[in-house]
Amino acid sequence: MIKAPRGTSDILPAASSQWQELEGRLRKLCTAYGYGELRTPIFEATELFARGVGEGTDIVDKEMYTFTDRGGRSLTLRPEGTAPVVRAFLEHKLNQSLPARFFYLGPMFRYERPQAGRMRQFHQFGIELFGAPGPLADVEVIELAWTAYRELGISDLEIKLNSLGCEECRAAYRQELKRRLAPRLSELCGHCQGRYERNPLRILDCKSPQCQGALTELPELSTYLCPECKEHFQQVKEGLSALGIPAVEDPQLVRGFDYYTRTVFEIVAEGLGAQDAVGGGGRYNNLVQDLGGPSVPAVGFAAGIERILLVLEKYGIKLKEEEKPFIYLAPLGKEALLYLFKTGTQLRRQGIPVYLPLEEKSLKAQMKAADRCGASWTLIVGEEELKSGQALLKNMVLGSQQQIQTAKIVEAIAELYREEGSRK
Ligand code: AMP
Q1: Domain extent listing, the chain
Q2: Tens digits of residue pLDDT in 393-422
Q3: pLDDT digits 0-9 by tens, 86-139
Q4: 374 in the Ramachandran plot: left (φ > 0), alpha (ψ -120 to 50) or beta?
Q5: b/e per residue 260-281 (b: at least 16 CB within 10 A)
Q6: CB neighbour burial string for 176-191, b if at least 16 within 10 angstroms, e if fewer
Q7: 78, 108, 157, 162: which to mutate for ligand 1, most atoms within 8 A of CB?
Q8: Are strands 100-109 and 36-37 parallel, antiparallel or unpaired?
Q9: Among the four given CATH numbers 3.40.50.300, 3.40.47.10, 3.40.50.800, 3.90.650.10, the one describing domain 327-419
């Protein structure tokens, strides 16, 4: 039997309603904050990520799904959403009116080792805010992220916050880092030995125990921040505190992308185990320019949908009950089957969820199926009822029954449906 590829999963109808509700709520929240949905292709030119995310990052070096198409182009299934949004921002000249706000929702692909909460195809919700250099933009993005989780009912969260400074602060730090790591170069993992010249800051993000051992007693990047970066960071912290959003400074927080400047943050949820980051983001002041555009500072955030759903499951939070049919149509006999098939189709065309049998079955079997599918009502029509013009309508919750005229059956059921809707 052919199975879904390792690290991917099917979302079955029972789970789909949770996904839809979650996506719907995120869309609504973004709209309230003035963010418009931007849908980019699932694959992009490989160069976009090599330049955008950065060579020397784990994503570009080890995790991309890259292939050559039949025209000889190197394409990559998007591993993240920011670089594609920046590409679209430039391609469509969306920098005419700034600040500009966008959000996205969709699948991302990374060749990682699958485990609970870590997949090769996963889904992200993300926002990007362009053209706002001030610290309040960082606060807006972190606040939106925070509110998104809180509104879903997730409260046990921690925000980790750090500043990576600008190119200038980093140049001095990079030098110091190389000086300190030089005598311990042989202790680093093979990958990081390669990074030492190319991208030494990435070494701080290495998860291998070998490197972790060599990374002790290094100076913190925060002590190298220039006065402007220090002031920006201070104001971000003050803005968050003014809104009552708790954030904990974490000088070790680097994150896996090269494009970040100044603020970076990660949001972790209690009780998720090793993969406890439910979202993260930061400021990227140079990426638009690095990808060939004008200088447009930006800040963004991305959340893992699967991880949010895992937390909700842990909390026992159901965003939405599974859709059930409103009415089960139970025909007895061939003539009634066709009659109810027609009735059911008319109801479905009005948007009323109907369970419609496709074959003749015994009354007992049909009543059992009606119970199982959770319909609120069952309509029974046999040869007798067709002759008398009176069908039997059963309330599945109360167990009561009533007669209903077959001539007005569609109108009567539609009216019941509207009544139930207004009670909800
Ligand atoms: P990143 O794009 O790496 O900053 O990740 C943002 C968020 O996406 C993380 O905090 C996770 O919630 C989620 N995420 C990242 N990688 C994966 C993965 N392989 N599987 C599931 N979720 C992921």
Answers
A1: 13-166+226-314, 327-419
A2: 999 999 999 999 999 999 999 999 999 887
A3: 999 999 999 999 999 999 999 999 999 999 999 999 999 999 999 999 999 999
A4: left
A5: bbbbbbbbbbeebeebbbbbbb
A6: bbeeebeeeeeebbeb
A7: 108
A8: parallel
A9: 3.40.50.800
Classify residue 219 by its DSSP letter: P
Alpha-carbon distance 405 to 145, whole Å? 54
Q: Which residue has the tokens 């201070």?
A: 234
Helix boundaries (H) for 130-247: 135-152, 167-181, 190-198, 209-214, 227-242
Closest ligand 1 atom, residue 256 Cα: 3
C-alpha of residue 93 to centroid of ligand 1, in Å: 29
Domain 13-166+226-314 adopts which CATH fold?
Answer: BirA Bifunctional Protein; domain 2 (3.30.930)
Give the global pTM: 0.91
* Closest residue to atom 21 of ligand 1, CA basis: 118
Residue 72: DSSP 8-state: S
Q: Which of 61, 125, 127 is nearest to 99 (CA)?
A: 127
Side chain identity at residue 237, one-letter code: K
Q: What are phi and psi of 130, to 5 degrees?
A: -105, 145
Amino acid code (one letter) for 402:
Q
